[in-house]
Design goal:
The protein is of the alpha/beta class. It has 18 helices and 14 strands. The strands form three sheets. The chain has a six-stranded parallel beta sheet with strand order 3-2-1-4-5-6, sandwiched between helices. The structure holds nicotinamide-adenine-dinucleotide and uridine-5'-diphosphate-glucuronic acid (UGA).
Length: 463
C-alpha cells in the first residue's frame, strides 16, 4: 500500500518532533498533527518557528522547512482521521490519579477516547499505530473498541513505541538506534507492518527496523525505560557509598563504564532522574507485575523509584545540614529547573521536589533557568499541592539573569546541567554572595577544584 496521508493525534513532545521528521524525510506524504489543545496548535503554527511550543535543538529549522508544504498542525481531529491511511496515537498516558491503580497504573482514558473517535469517524480501512507508551496488551482493548463499530471498516493495530530522549529528540529521530514495529502475524497484520516499515525506510537503514509481535513491542518500551532508569538508580546508590568512603563516583563510573559489557552511557550520578516517563513507566510496570501476582518482579523494579526518591531527599537534606541545620529565610539559588538540559520540559524535575523540601524549611528560593518561565515554575509547585499558591509565590522568585539570581544567596544548587553554567564568571558570582558561599552540584557539571580555589564550599554528588 502506498502511504500518502498520515495523521497523528497528540501534538506534544513526541507527536510534534516525530511527525516533523517524518514530514521532512517523506515529502511525498502529507502529515497532519492534531490536538484538542488550541493554544498548543496555535503555537505550532506561529509564523516565527522560534515560538513553537517545544524547545528541541534543530526542531524549529525542520518545522520551518516542512510546515505548510506537507506538515500541518490542526485542531480538526475528525477531518485528519478521515483522510489518513495511517493514524498515530501519541497522546499522554500519565499515572492514574484516581480509582483502581491510583498512583501506579497508566491512565488510558485519552487513548480510549482516541480509539472511540477513530471508530466513529473512519469510513475506510485504517492502520492505527500506538506511538504512546502503553501497558502490554493495550492493543487488545483498542482493537476491541475499533472492531465494534459495525460499519465494516477493517483496522490493523500496530505498536511503534518512541525511544527519543528530550533535548536530543531531533538527532534521535534522524539516527535512531532502532525502530520497533509490533503487529499481528496475520497476512493483513504483516501488510500493515510493511506499510509502516516503508515510511521509516525513507531514512532509516532497514537493518535497524525491527518487527515483532504486538505484545513484545509494547513490553520492550517499558523494559527499555526500566533498564535505563535502573542504571541511574544503581549509580546514585553507589554515590551515597562514595560519600561515606572517600571513593569518587565519577571515577567509579568511568572505571566500570570501560567494561564493554557495562558501557559508559547512563552512569552519571545526579540529584535523581526526572522527566515525564521513567517514573510513570516503572510504576506502570510494577502495577502490571502485581496484577499478574508477580510480587518479587514488582518489588525489584519498585526499588528503582524508591532509590530515586531517596536521592532527591538526600540532596535537599544535605543542603539544610550543611547550612548549619537551618535555611529559614536564606536565599538559595537554583540554577536550572528543567529535568535535563536542552529542554523546556519540567515534568517530574528533581528541582521541584528539592524546592518543595526547602520551602518547607522556610527557605527563599531564587530560580534561573534559560528556558523555563516563572509561570511554569509556580505551576509545578502548586501542582504538588503541599501548600497554598500564595505561600509558593512568596517563597520563589524567578530571574532572567543568573548573576542577579545568585546575588546575596547563601547557597547555589545546580539542578540542571545546562552547558552555559560552566562558562559563568564564578569569581564574580562568589564575590556577590553571602559568606561562606556554598555550591551543591546536583549534576557534577562544574569544576570542583576551580570553585574551591575561589573560596566556595563545593559539594558534588558522590564526591
Ligand atoms: P504530551 O503531554 O506532551 O502530549 C500529548 C498531547 O496529546 C497533548 O498536547 C494533549 O492535548 C493531546 N491529547 C490528549 N488527548 C487527546 C485527544 N483525545 N485528542 C487530541 N489530542 C489529545 O505528551 P508526550 O510527552 O508527547 O507523550 C506522549 C506519549 O509518548 C506518552 O505515552 C509518553 O509516555 C510517550 N513518550 C514520551 C517521550 C518524551 O520524551 N516525552 C518519549 C517517548 C515516549
Ligand atoms: C527517556 C529515555 O532516555 C528515552 O529513550 C525514552 O524514549 C523517554 O525517556 C521516554 O520514554 O519518555 P528522557 O526522559 O527524555 O528520555 O531523557 P533522559 O536522557 O533519559 O533523562 C532522564 C533523566 O535521567 C534526566 O533527569 C537526566 O538528567 C537523568 N539522567 C540521565 C541521570 O541522572 N544520569 C544519567 O546518566 C542519564
Amino acid at each position: 500500500m502506498e502511504i500518502t496521508k498520515i495523521c497523528c493525534i497528540g501534538a506534544g513532545y513526541v507527536g510534534g518532533p516525530t511527525m516533523a521528521v517524518i514530514a521532512q524525510k517523506c515529502p511525498h506524504i502529507q502529515v497532519t498533527v492534531v490536538d484538542l489543545n488550541e493554544e498548543r496548535i496555535a503555537a505550532w503554527n506561529d509564523p516565527n518557528t522560534d515560538n513553537i511550543p517545544i524547545y528541541e535543538p534543530g526542531l524549529s529549522e525542520i518545522v520551518a522547512t516542512a510546515r505548510g508544504r506537507n506538515l500541518f498542525f490542526s485542531t480538526a481531529v475528525d477531518q485528519a482521521i478521515d483522510e489518513a491511511q495511517i493514524i498515530f496515537i501519541s497522546v499522554n498516558t500519565p499515572t492514574k490519579t484516581y480509582g483502581k491503580g491510583k498512583g501506579m497504573a497508566a491512565d488510558l482514558k485519552y487513548i480510549e477516547l482516541c480509539a472511540r473517535q477513530i471508530a466513529r469517524v473512519a469510513k475506510d480501512n485504517k492502520i492505527v499505530v500506538e506511538k504512546s507508551t502503553l501497558p502490554v496488551r493495550t492493543a487488545e482493548a483498542i482493537k476491541s473498541i475499533l472492531d465494534h463499530t459495525g460499519n465494516g471498516v477493517q483496522f490493523q493495530i500496530l505498536s511503534n513505541p518512541e525511544f527519543l530522549a528530550e533535548g536530543t529528540a531531533v538527532t534521535d529521530l534522524l539516527q535512531p538506534d532502532r525502530i520497533l514495529i509490533g503487529g499481528d502475524t496475520t497476512p493483513e497484520g504483516k501488510k500493515a507492518m510493511e506499510a509502516l516499515v516503508q515510511v521509516y525506510s525513507n531514512w532509516v537503514p532497514t537493518d535497524k527496523i525491527l518487527t515483532t509481535n504486538v505484545w513484545s513491542s509494547e513490553l520492550s518500551k517499558l523494559t527499555a525505560n526500566a533498564f535505563l532508569a535502573q542504571r541511574i538508580s544503581s549509580v546514585n546508590a553507589m554515590s551515597e557509598l562514595c560519600e561515606k568512603t572517600g571513593a569518587d563516583i565519577n571515577e567509579v563510573a568511568k572505571a566500570i563504564g570501560m567494561d564493554s559489557r557495562i558501557g559508559p552511557k547512563f552512569l552519571k550520578a545526579s540529584v535523581g532522574f526526572g522527566g515525564s516517563c521513567f517514573q510513570k513507566d516503572i510504576l506502570n510496570l510494577v502495577y502490571i507485575a502485581k496484577s499478574y501476582g508477580l510480587h518479587e518482579v514488582a518489588d525489584y523494579w519498585e526499588q528503582v523509584i524508591i532509590m530515586n526518591d531517596h536521592q532527591k531527599r538526600r540532596f535537599s537534606n544535605g543542603i539544610v545540614q550543611t547550612l548549619y541545620n537551618t535555611v529559614s529565610d536564606k536565599k538559595i539559588t537554583f540554577l536550572g529547573w528543567a529535568f535535563k538540559k536542552d529542554t523546556n520540559d519540567t515534568r517530574e524535575s528533581a528541582a521541584i521536589f528539592v524546592a518543595d523540601d526547602l520551602i518547607n524549611e522556610h527557605a527563599k528560593i531564587a530560580v534561573y533557568d534559560p528556558k523555563v518561565s516563572s509561570k511554569k515554575i509556580l505551576e509545578d509547585l502548586n501542582y504538588l499541592a503541599t501548600r497554598s499558591p500564595e505561600h509558593n509565590q512568596d517563597s520563589v522568585t524567578s530571574y532572567r539573569d543568573p548573576y542577579e539570581a545568585c546575588q546575596d544567596a547563601h547557597a547555589i544548587a545546580i539542578l540542571t546541567e545546562w552547558d552555559e553554567f560552566i562558562h559563568y564568571d564564578w569569581q564574580k558570582i562568589f564575590d556577590a554572595m553571602q559568606k561562606p558561599a556554598f555550591i551543591f552540584d546536583g549534576r557534577n557539571v562544574l569544576d570542583a577544584a576551580q570553585l574551591r580555589a575561589i573560596g566556595f564550599v563545593y559539594q558534588g554528588i558522590g564526591s
